Hints:
Layout: H1 10-15, H2 17-28, E1 31-36, E2 39-44, H3 47-56, E3 61-62, H4 71-74, H5 83-93, H6 99-103, H7 106-115, H8 117-126, E4 130-131, H9 132-149, H10 154-172, H11 180-189, H12 191-214, H13 221-227, H14 239-270, H15 272-286, H16 293-296, H17 300-312, E5 319-323, E6 327-329, E7 332-334, E8 339-342, H18 344-347, H19 393-408, E9 409-413, E10 420-423, E11 427-430, E12 434-439
Parallel strand pairs: 2-8
Antiparallel strand pairs: 1-2, 3-5, 4-12, 5-8, 6-7, 9-12, 10-11
Helix pairs in contact: 7-9, 7-19, 9-10, 9-14, 10-12, 12-14, 14-17, 14-19, 15-17, 15-19, 17-19
Amino acid sequence: MRSYPVVGLLPTFARDPVNTLVRLAQEQGGVAVLPLGRRRIYLVTSPAGVQHVLKDHAGNFIKGRTMDVARPLLGESLVAAEGETWRRLRRLVQPAFSRHYVMNMVDVIADTVTSFFPQWDALAESKKPINLVDMMMEVTLSIIARIMFSVDIVEEEERLLSAFDRAMNALNRIAWSPWPRLSSLYVRALPGFRRAKATLDEVVYHIIRSRRANGTERKDLLAILMGARDAETGTSLSDREVRDQVMTVFLAGHETTALALSWGWYLLGTHPETYRRLQEEVDDVLGGKTVTRDRIGALRYTRMVVDETLRLYPTVWVTARDTVEDDVVDGVPIPGGARVVISPYVTHRDPHLWPAPEAFDPERFREGVPEHLPLFGYYPFSGGPRKCLGYLLAPLEMTIILALMAQRYHITLVPGYPVRPRPVLTLRPHPGVFVWLDRRH
Length: 441
């Protein structure tokens, strides 16, 4: 790949970030150097290198300045915190994402999806093209609201989606800024971002304060966060800390899942045989009924489609770290203070790990994650001590939504809308996934 004087690969990277990283790894190996102007960014994609950074030597690879981009919206949440603050938050928040709690959400997720059927039936009757991304954003936002607050947000849904969209558009403008702290100040000053954040804060703080005032006992995510006590210090989360965790779950729990579902439907639309097999399984397992905790395990092929979608299009396609001290990763020296980028998107396309890596083949996951893979050969939810807490909830939610939609509707891609990845903070299908929705009989 041609590198230019002074600017390095900056023009190439700006035009096509995703394929630039894939080609760089192919040319240089599992630890590559990405020259962007005066900066040298280290791209780590070999499983051994990723394990070194995210797990074995995680203390030397901190989020640091990399979270300055998201901090204006998320505050000092679990994903942004470091050191003892992070350890305390992790102890308090992790119980809310236990396997037991997540599996108890099956009925909530299924009921929320079916509540959208009248709205989607009307879209099917209209015979008009629909951007599936918008549909998935709506349903996943409603699901995460019920999981967090035990309430519907139908009246607030449009306002919240608009606010999230405006806030994310502002953050995406600085996603690859070489001056994250300066860019963070710039975003905070934008009137559109400030209004969007104010809307989100208004809704979240109103729910938190109402819950504290009413003293209502619930078994939702908010109740777990508000009632959590640190076993080591005896402290609980302040309203501001609860707000920051809720905002992070709100964003991660609906945007990333919605985008992954959109990619899944796009892949099914371009692979009719896979789509047919998924529908056959759904019809056989559900028999016209809804998804329940007893039936979810039998939707094996649907889950395989989910896992293969997350391999090809992990919505958190890159994650960044800053080195504290000099280190050696997979034989390559990396100085202290350097920026290190990890990309599951690139690792998942390594032909040494995945035969025909660009092909969509759910059969790869027939027995779960392939046994021959090293630990970090597949990591759509990152890994190590800072692994995404939603690694159980997101695939479960995707499986239920795919199954219930495939049971009731047939989805056909509208021709003339080629989809390509738009990599910002998340991996978005651009310009969208436009479909026709038809009721199945």
